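Q: Give me a protein?
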Amino acid sequence: MPPQTIKIIDKWLGRPICFLLTVWRYFFTFTGLEKRTTPPRKILFIKLIEQGATVLAYSAIKRAVDLVGKENVFFCVFKGNNSILEIINIIPHENILIIRQGNIITFLDDVLQLLITVRSKGIDSTVDMEFFSRASVLLAYLSGATNRTGFHRFTSELPYRGDLLTHRLAYSPYLHTAKAYYLLVEALTSDPKETPMIKIPYKNIIPEVPRFVPDDYEMRTLMNTFPLSIGGEPKRPIILLNPNASDMLPLRKWPAENFVEIALRLLNQYK
């Protein structure tokens, strides 16, 4: 499905579903049937789009691994955005749960299979990494997880996502995303009655940056490509520029002439 179609579905279908499920949740809370939160044992990250955001979540994922063990950390992502998880290599391959978005039939089928898998594996905690979309918070609630951490709008002028989370954090555009993701995981260890969460010094959080270490096959493939493009063996260092950006966020696209400028500067520095 095109990005614009996903946005339309999220807005016009996601909003009323969030409202109806919030009413449903209030009924269960009022009657005492809402499940009580427990210490996390198995954690599912939900980040459907943006591979770059997954890189920023590296420290948060490591924190989750420290809490429950590598084999108990899972990640839900759209097909095509899962390759970055393979590169980071911090979550077991079999724990990466993929949703295809080619058409509505495969999408709904994968969502159903996801919910079945989450419940069958006994995943009790979800980390909703989205800021504004509603699909992720709906998946978190429908998963049946006891602990559901994510961003809540409170009094801010942000899109309505209902009240489906147990651990609610206030979104701040002034806080680095890597630290915000880390706090989402840290909130799972805190009392959900804190609102908004989480009240710890964020300045003490020093995010880690994952490093890509190519294997021999990848290096051979790269080196074999150069003679065809530049007519000879390249000199070191090798610098790769990727001017591509997702159509989901065109605001982030850097002008092409800026890539030309930085390439010229690099050539000037590295003869």
